[in-house]
Model the fold of this input.
Amino acid sequence: GENVEQHPSTLSVQEGDSAVIKCTYSDSASNYFPWYKQELGKRPQLIIDIRSNVGEKKDQRIAVTLNKTAKHFSLHITETQPEDSAVYFCAATELRGGADGLTFGKGTHLIIQP
Amino acid sequence: GAVVSQHPSWVICKSGTSVKIECRSLDFQATTMFWYRQFPKQSLMLMATSNEGSKATYEQGVEKDKFLINHASLTLSTLTVTSAHPEDSSFYICSARGVNTQYFGPGTRLTVL
Done:
C-alpha cells in the first residue's frame, strides 16, 4: 500500500516569512495529492490539491509543487499570518473514477511567531 | 462544497458498551464513504471504506467484528464500536467520496471510561 512521509513535524516561522512542508510517497500509482489544514478538534479542511498531470498549482499565498519522478510534493505558504497556525497534513491516493481512501502524512504543526 | 454531518459530535460511554456513530451526506448521494480514526496529536488513519449496499473493506489491522460498518442508503453510513474499551477513545471522522475529492464530516470524539 501507499506510504506517505511528511517533514518537518514542527515548523516555526516569523510572521510574514514563508513556510515549506515536504512530503514523499511510495506508490507510483498515486495521482491525487491534497493538503489539509486542521485546527484542534475540527475536521480537516482542504486548502489545495494537485493531480499528477501538473507540476505546480497556486492559489493566492498557497502553492503546491509535485515531482512525479522523485515522488515528492511540497506545500509553500508565503507571507504567513497568525491564522495560518495549525496542523497541516499531506495525503496521497489513486483516483479511480472517484476519490479513494487517503493515506495521510503524520502532519506538520506550523507555528507563526508574531 | 458538499456537506457531510456526523452524529453525535461527542460521546462518553462505559467500557464494554457499544456506540454508534452516524455519517450523513446532506446534499449529495455518496456511494462510498470512508471512516478515519485520529488519536491525539497524530494523523488520520483510514479504518475502512464503506460501500452502499455491500460489505465494508477494512484496512489491515482494523477488526471488522469490533468496528461494524453499515451503509444502507446513499446518504448514510454508520460505524458501531462494539464492546468499547478505553483504548478505543479517539476522534472518529468520516468522509464522503466525491468525483475529485473527499468531503469530511466534523468528527465524533469518543471517550470510553
Observations:
- Chain B has a mean pLDDT of 93.
- Chain B is about 0% helix and 55% strand.
- The two ends of chain B are 37 Å apart (CA to CA).
- The longest strand of chain B covers residues 44-51.
